[in-house]
Amino acid sequence: MNTSPLIAAMIDAARVAGAGLVADQTRILSLNVQSKLGPADMFSEADLRAEATVRDALMTFRPDYGFLGEEGGLEAGADADHVWIVDPLDGTANFLTGSPLFAVNVALARAGDVIAGVTHVPHLDETFWAETGSGAWLNDAPIRISTRQALAEAVLGVGIPFATKPKHEVFLAEMARLTNRVTGLRRLGAGAIDMAWVACGRYDAYWEQSVSAWDMAAGAVIVREAGGLVTGTRGEPLDLMGGTVLACTPAIQRELLAELGA
User: What is the pLDDT of residue 169?
Assistant: First the structure.
């Protein structure tokens, strides 16, 4: 598959940043780790380096675009319609505890709609990517959502709120309703990977009730191009700033929305 110059630039930026993160993970004990909102919400100099790496590469490719990064916030661009949306290290807690399940998340939004996305998982050598109208891909192979048809057969991914996040009671109620209705519930600790796994059929759905734009932007276009649906958790059109996301197969969306909205 020949990628467009846009996707090639996004993949290159994500892979270079990912290589840096792998190197940084070998020296976790020497990293400067800081807290955002409490001990459950951490970041390190590795996050900052990865974001700078991605930003420099993307701004070299399209210097007029805006840039929204988890660590640095929003920088407006001369081109007001286009914004890069970047999570340089999705799964920071995993990274800091030595887990291989973390990713670099890079997306491009045009007038608020995500048109291209890359989720790179360096330790697994897996790069998920999509551009509107070009399908969804894992490395050089096309991917599609699961063909399972019933909620009872489904394996679902979920984002569990950590200590400083809201909606713990909502999560507990969801678990009480869903655990006896599905084949499995999973929590990877990196929403970008969860959404990529919906796109390639490893999961049938993923949802989270307290999520940021940079966590879900790339996954939104990857899941859609793989044949899935991406909305808010009440079925409303996805709002990148709305704080919730549901990515799932069309076959189980109605049943799942009924449980999430109960």
Answer: 86
In DSSP notation, 165-189 reads SS-HHHHHHHHHHHTTTSSEEE--S
Cα 154 vs. chain centroid, distance in angstroms? 20
Q: Check whether 68 is labelled as a binding-site residue.
A: no
Q: Nearest Cα to 118, choosing from 188, 195, 23, 44?
A: 195
Class of CATH domain 151-260: alpha beta
User: In angstroms, rounded to a whole number, what is the distance separating the alpha carbons of residues 222 and 57?
Assistant: 21
Asked if residue 117 lies in contact with residue 90, where contact means CB atoms within 8 angstroms, the answer is no
What is the sign, positive or negative, of the torsion defined by CA atoms of 178, 224, 79, 43? positive
Report yes or no on whether pTM surpasses 0.90: yes
Q: What is the pLDDT of residues 33-45, one digit of tens each?
A: 666 545 544 567 8
The fold of 5-142 is Fructose-1,6-Bisphosphatase; Chain A, domain 1 (3.30.540)
Is residue 215 marked as binding?
Answer: yes
Q: Is residue 173's pLDDT more than 80?
A: yes
When pLDDT is cut at 50, 70 and 90, the band that residue 160 belongs to is confident
Mean pLDDT of the chain: 91
Local structure of residue 226 (DSSP, 8 states)? T
Residue 153 marked as a ligand binder: no
- On whether 41 is known to bind a ligand per the annotation, the reply is no
Domain boundaries, the chain: 5-142, 151-260
Q: Does 70 count as an annotated binding residue?
A: yes
Range 192-218 average pLDDT? 96
Identify any residues that bridge with 247 across adjacent strands, giving them in sequence order: 206, 230
Distance CA 198, CA 204 (A): 6
